[in-house]
Amino acid sequence: MDYSIKNICCIGAGYVGGPSMAVIADKCTNKNINVVDLNKERIDLWNSSNLSNLPIYEPGLKEIIKRRRGKNLFFSTEVKKNIAEADMIFISVNTPTKIKGIGAGEAIDLKWVEASSRQISRYAKGKTIVVEKSTLPVRTAETIKSILNSTITKNKNQSESQEFFILSNPEFLAEGTAINDLENPDRILIGGEDDDAIKALENIYSTWINQDKIIKTDLWSAELSKLIANAFLAQRISSINSISALCEVTGADIKEVANAIGKDTRIGEFFLNSGPGFGGSCFKKDILNLVYICKYYGLYETANYWQNVIEINNWQQKRISNVIINKLFGTVVGKKLSILGFSFKKNTNDTRESPAIKICKNLIEEGAKLNIYDPQVMPKIIERDLNLKESIEFDSSSELGEWKFASSIYESAIDSDALIFLTEWDEFKFINWKKISEKMRDPKWIFDTRSISISKEAQAYGFNIWVIGEGKNLP
Ligand code: NAD
Ligand code: UGA
User: Fold this and answer.
1) DSSP-based three-state secondary structure for 292
2) For residue 421, how far is its CA from the centre of ligand 2 (angstroms)?
3) Is the pLDDT of residue 474 over 80?
């Protein structure tokens, strides 16, 4: 049968639900999109009249919200009503690693997915297509299906016309480039069992995406492909990061190596930037989940193989704090250090699993006084991530590590011994080296963990420079 989709509901107004629904609303102006969330504060920010207050910073997002909000794109906490009116429901809720119980530290906590499924089963009316947009362990669709179908069985008389069709449609957007990724994706993946339901979702995407980019599979392959895509991407970063350390001790340069190997079309040039380790809400949790699934099926060698991608990432973050401490004469007690960038990558305000968190914690533990500057991350988020209150003024009589927020790069550099670049924000490429060098204490250092092409000019102002993966750092 032909499913005509007029009303779409998305459960979860986060980094995926917000931008992905905004783009669907922008491309399919004949569909009504209602994004619902239990978090009222987040919904209020999505509805804020000042578009600079949106809960998520993504280039290009504001403009779409301005065009579509209140027309065919709505944000609300009215879960019941919007589920009841929807022909298609996307589940875009969080799926973090479990912190307690069976599988703690590895398995995905499915409690938000289960709660969403129960909400759908309670309120949905008629034929409803339920789309898994969240990243889920393979075979989660089975769980969702059994929750949905259990209410149909229970309320058999009232819900004769009720029927659910489940699709897996994982999201591949990356933060910071989300709008472009959604508008021009490499592929759209739809897994399912019902051809007409698949077609209904395909029709939405084909409004702006070429048919040859739409891949259709069974449910389990779609669910698993998402986990594996993230695992392969993270594996490349751990591979290049492991080699950055080898470059530093042999005199080779990681950028030259990445360029040379990337020219081989079988390897490819992307995702070969060495850095302070991968962050973000997904790589680590998705690999941990892969490890858990492999162990569950008794595939211990496969589990160990992927576990090592995470081990290398942890090692890289620790390695960087150690390099900084060693170069600063083996101690950072009482030293002021300027931390430039706190988000896990540029062009996002997201700090989840940001390498900056571990590196800053290590330096604070060693007694450093950190002046942290990030153009998009708010001090209250840094306070939460470091689990340490911001100091109003540093206490020079104390050997305890502390941190303060700086409102500019130059403010962060005052009396500082080192500039530590942890995120590759574009504005860091345009520093006035004369101005910044005058504010710092000698001997002054630059630690560039992102290879932000620090200009030769910096050297002229007497900086000692350490760049990740550069063998010319050899003593
Ligand atoms: P998020 O934490 O930013 O947003 C999830 C939202 O869901 C929260 O606002 C939460 O309040 C809401 N929510 C949870 N349970 C709810 C319920 N029962 N009813 C209504 N609202 C509910 O998470 P995110 O970063 O958007 O990620 C969502 C999913 O997408 C995850 O599975 C993630 O792995 C996947 N993913 C994320 C990205 C990314 O770049 N962040 C990219 C691709 C896929
Ligand atoms: C990643 C994937 O790229 C998306 O396809 C996926 O949808 C998403 O995870 C998800 O499932 O959440 P994201 O984490 O937003 O997207 O950002 P990436 O660009 O992948 O960067 C992740 C981390 O790796 C960042 O800390 C980044 O700085 C680091 N990275 C990336 C490197 O260190 N080197 C690189 O070459 C690329």
Assistant:
1) helix
2) 18
3) no
CB 337 within 8 A of CB 370: yes
User: Is the preceding peptide bond at 59 cis, omega within 30 degrees of 0?
Assistant: no
* pLDDT exceeds cutoff 60 at 301: yes
CA distances from 378 to 113, 159, 355, 406 (A): 29, 48, 17, 11
Mutate to test the pocket of ligand 2, among 272, 282, 424 (most ligand atoms within 8 A of CB): 282
pLDDT above 80: residue 105: yes
**Number of the ligand closest to the Cα of 45:** 1
Return the structure tokens found at 101: 């119980």
Residue with tokens 């991407």: 233
Which tens digits make up the pLDDT trace of 353-396? 999 999 999 999 999 999 999 999 999 999 999 999 999 999 99
Shortest-distance atom of ligand 2 to CA 276: 33
Nearest atom in ligand 1 to the alpha carbon of residue 174 is 40
Residue-level length of the chain: 475
Calculate how far, in angstroms, residue 269's C-alpha sits from the geometric centre of ligand 2.
Answer: 15
Q: What is the mean pLDDT of residues 417-427?
A: 97
Q: Which secondary-structure segment (H or E) carries 211?
A: none
Q: Which ligand is nearest to the CA of 174?
A: 2
CB distance 276 to 450 below 8 Å: yes
Kindly report the protein residue whose alpha carbon is nearest to atom 20 of ligand 2. Answer: 174
347 lines ligand 2 (CB under 6 A): no
Predicted local confidence at residue 456, as pLDDT? 74
Report pLDDT for 453.
Answer: 74
Closest CA to 276 of 311, 232, 244, 302: 244
Active site residues: 282
Asked if residue 271 has its Cβ within 6 Å of ligand 2, the reply is yes
Q: State the pLDDT confidence band at 160, using cuts at 50, 70 and 90.
A: low
Q: Which ligand is nearest to the CA of 38?
A: 1
User: E-strand spans in 108-234?
Assistant: 127-132, 163-168, 188-192, 214-217
Kindly report whether the global pTM for this prediction surpasses the value 0.90: yes
User: Which residue, judged by its Cα, is nearest atom 27 of ligand 1?
Assistant: 94
CA-proximal residue: ligand 2, atom 30 (nearest): 278
Residue nearest (by alpha carbon) to ligand 2 atom 1? 174
Nearest to 354 by CA among 324, 328, 384, 325: 384
Q: Does the pLDDT at position 423 exceed 90?
A: yes
Burial class from Cβ neighbours inside 10 Å (0-12, 13-18, 19+) for residue 337 reads buried
For residue 426, the 8-state DSSP code is G
